[in-house]
Design a protein that fits this description.
alpha/beta, Cobalt-precorrin-4 Transmethylase, domain 1, Methyltransferase, Cobalt-precorrin-4 Transmethylase, Domain 2, six-stranded mixed beta sheet, five-stranded parallel beta sheet, about 25% helix, elongated, binds S-adenosyl-L-homocysteine
């Protein structure tokens, strides 16, 4: 009998932002393959004899090839092991969870998805920013700043949508994204927020405008991993926080 693969979300960083279901399954897992945005503290839920493998892949760094990860998952499941594939945030939000599910399907291995709290909602929320708010935006668009050739983001269409933009993996490409949003007619004074290491004790954030965000991030040394939020909802930063003084505002920097 093959084991089962759990494509599991570890949440955005705060070790309490994992689901009860994820913890229960982690406790019983025999093999755990862990991405590098997963808080290592979560592994305290693993059993002492679980085999834990780090298979992280950070942009620009040495990374484990996706085919190797698939192979490890298939081998362990075929050996009858129950396998947790633990990913930061939610496994189906820019986490290659979909690709892994397809690969397991091709190999005839059962997959169960265990949803997690995604950074694109939790990082803004940690500074009091709701990604939707009916007075400010009719919806939200989750988008990558790092798109594949052939699947490029149509930034002009996103400007026209009036939705809040929540950008994952957008630190390196931010100047280009901003240029495209401006070219499509978005106001240079549109509110823009970056949150690095959201929900972790190392969290840093800066509230600026579309035209000032990039320089504000450089000035405050805010880099990857960060979520960028562009839209009027960003102005709510601080309201829902216990210590609003932690927000750095660059909204009026020309
Ligand atoms: N599956 C993950 C996203 C993986 S893509 C999720 O649902 O959250 C990796 C990107 O997620 C990073 O480049 C960054 O943009 C974002 N990210 C992940 N954790 C983050 C955190 N704690 N704070 C800010 N951004 C984070």
């Amino acid at each position: 009998m093959n084991g089962k693969i759990y494509l599991m979300g570890a949440g955005p960083g705060d070790p309490e932002l994992i689901t009860l279901k994820a913890v229960r399954i982690l406790q019983a897992a025999e093999v755990i393959l862990v991405d590098d945005l997963v808080n290592p503290l979560l592994l305290r839920h693993a059993s002492a004899d679980a085999r834990i493998m780090a298979v992280g892949k950070r942009g620009g760094c040495k990374s484990t090839p996706q085919a190797f990860i698939h192979k490890q998952m298939i081998q362990a499941a075929r050996a009858g092991k129950d396998v947790v594939r633990l990913k930061g945030g939610d496994p189906f939000m820019f986490g290659r969870g979909g690709e892994e599910m397809e690969a397991m399907h091709r190999a005839g291995i059962a997959v169960e998805v265990v949803s997690g709290v995604t950074a694109g909602i939790a990082a803004p929320a940690s500074v009091g920013v709701p990604v939707t708010h009916r007075n400010y935006a009719p919806g939200v668009t989750f988008v990558t700043g790092h798109s594949q050739d052939g699947k490029r983001v149509n930034w002009a269409a996103l400007v026209a949508s009036l939705t809040t933009l929540v950008i994952y993996m957008g630190v390196k490409t931010l100047p280009d994204i901003v240029a495209q949003l401006l070219a499509a007619g978005m106001s240079p004074h549109m509110s823009a927020l970056a949150v690095q290491n959201g929900t972790l004790s190392e969290q840093r954030q800066v509230l600026a405008t579309l035209e000032t965000l990039h320089s504000a991030m450089i000035e405050k040394h805010i880099g990857s991993p960060a979520i960028v939020v562009i839209g009027e909802v960003a102005d709510l930063a601080g309201i829902g926080m216990t210590s609003a003084a932690d927000i750095e505002t660059f909204a009026h920097v020309a």
